[in-house]
Design a protein that fits this description.
single chain; 181 residues; alpha/beta; 4-stranded mixed sheet; hydrolase activity, acting on ester bonds; GDSL; SGNH_hydro_sf; GDSL_lipolytic_enzyme
């Protein structure tokens, strides 16, 4: 499992790596893009797959620590059942959030947060400062109450088509075709 993007702050002026803060997300999209939408992980039940993902996250945290990242902020999973692609693939005609996918995010986040607390400053990672970042609740609130955050629509992606709207499928051709229809 590949990890998400890593952002390092605090390395100005030759600061030691262990004084820097590393912010990372550890691929929670594997739940939506691998477990739920492809047959590749069907040898796992959901609970076992979440355990596998948390173990991969743990291994990545240890690797970052081994590379000198002593201060880590790790983002949990967003409400993956509310992202436009998953609403299109598994949502109903009204494009509601997919509750099973969101529940998977909740379970993953709880297990990840528990693991982070166990690792934080442990004998295995002495001097480490590990923090869990909750993405799920603030993003779900934005989806459920978009006007509070200055949005009109929260059930479509940036293309505004209400279709798949992810990476290469969200481009000027798909957006133009939607506007013409």
């Amino acid at each position: 499992m590949a990890a998400g993007a890593v952002f390092r702050a605090g390395r100005r002026g030759g600061a030691a790596p262990d004084k820097a803060t590393t912010v990372t997300g550890i691929k929670p999209t594997d739940l939506a893009n691998t477990y739920f939408t492809t047959p590749f992980r069907r040898d796992y039940d959901l609970e076992s797959y979440i355990e596998y993902l948390v173990q991969c996250a743990t291994d990545f945290i240890k690797k970052l620590y081994g590379e000198g990242a002593g201060r880590l902020s790790i983002a949990g999973a967003p409400p993956i059942g509310c992202v436009p692609s998953q609403r299109t693939i598994a949502g109903d005609h009204d494009r509601e959030c997919v509750s099973l996918y969101n529940q998977a995010s909740v379970l993953y986040n709880a297990a990840l947060e528990k693991e982070i607390k166990l690792l934080n400053g442990s004998a295995e990672l002495p001097g480490s400062v590990l923090k869990y970042i909750d993405l799920y609740n603030p993003l779900l609130d934005m989806v459920q109450r978009p006007a509070t955050y200055g949005f009109d629509v929260s059930n479509r992606g940036c293309c505004g088509t209400g279709l798949f709207e992810v990476t290469l499928t969200c481009n000027r051709y798909t957006a133009d075709a939607w506007r013409r229809s």
